Amino acid sequence: MNGYTHMVVGGLCGGIPVAFSIAERKLGFSIGSHILYPIIGLFPAVLGALGPDVDMPNSKAGKKVRRVLIASIIISVPLLFFFYRDNVRDNAYLFSLIFLALCCISLFVFKARHRQVTHCGLLMVMLFLPNIYIARFIQASPLIDSVLSAWLGFCFGWFSHLVLDTLNPKGVPWLYPFSSRYFRFAKIGAGTKDESVFRTFCIVFFVIAYLAIIIFRSNIASTLF
Ligand SMILES: [Zn+2]
After folding, report:
1. What is the Cα Rg of the chain in Å?
2. Which of 169, 200, 204, 195 has its CA nearest to residue 3?
3. Per-residue pLDDT for the chain (225 aa), expressed as one digit of tens each?
4. How many domains does the chain have?
5. Alpha-carbon distance 92 to 137, whole Å?
6. Within the chain, what is the greatest distance between any pair of CA atoms?
7. Where are the alpha helices (DSSP H) in the chain?
8. What CA dihedral angle connects 68, 82, 77 and 150, to 10 degrees?
9. Ligand 1 centroid – CA 119 distance (Å)
């Protein structure tokens, strides 16, 4: 799939929790002591959907993600000093440190082979783990909850990319580095007419899903029926 399809589907996936948010007329949903804000996760879902193709330095997606990664490092360094200087070391400082470390670790993908390490399930799990850490061990605050919402959105976007590439003729090495087998469930080639049809199908499917969620989960529906 090309970058455009990944962005569209990533954004559509991020729209599902937003539909729940609209249906229940809530800005956020509680998870333990934290509150998740679907709207904050929407744009990161689009970015995350481009993420795995960072292993293609000359692709549109690869260039964009690399820029975001470099920008994240540049932004997080002064943030680290800011939080340290102000003695807000418990949450914000720790988060900035973890974020910077993750960005630095991510730099290795600049040298990664296409459709290998960035497209495996193990990296997907590793990306998801900070969410569990934040949710369980970091005290809730508007900043931390926003970060959690954004990072979850990014992870779901990333996951949508892997699922879409599994529909591509080359497939995805879900079990790398334990197995080098590439899994594929369809043969939708990148940039083909099949891809355009698939993209249109996804848009229609998700719009119907949004409407179904809004109608069946909304308070209006519950009072009417
Ligand atoms: Zn890919």
Report:
1. 19
2. 195
3. 888 899 999 999 999 999 999 998 888 898 888 999 999 999 999 989 988 888 887 776 677 777 888 888 888 888 777 777 665 556 777 777 878 887 887 777 777 788 888 899 999 999 899 889 888 888 888 988 999 999 999 999 999 999 999 999 999 999 999 998 999 988 888 888 999 999 999 999 999 999 999 988 776 555 544
4. 1
5. 13
6. 57
7. 3-23, 38-50, 60-85, 94-106, 121-137, 142-165, 193-217, 219-224
8. -30
9. 7
Q: Which residue has the tokens 């497939």?
A: 171
* Spacing, Cα 53 to ligand 1 middle (Å): 5
What separation in Å is there between the alpha carbon of 208 and the centre of ligand 1? 26
Q: Which two tokens stand for residue 177?
A: 């580095």
For residues 113 and 93, is the Cβ–Cβ distance under 8 A? no
Closest CA to 132 of 120, 116, 148, 110: 148
CB atoms < 10 A from the CB of 135, how many? 18
Token readout for 149 is 């919402």
Residue numbers of the domain that contains 160: 3-224
CA of 188 from ligand 1 middle (Å) equals 13
Q: Are 84 and 90 in contact (CB under 8 A)?
A: no
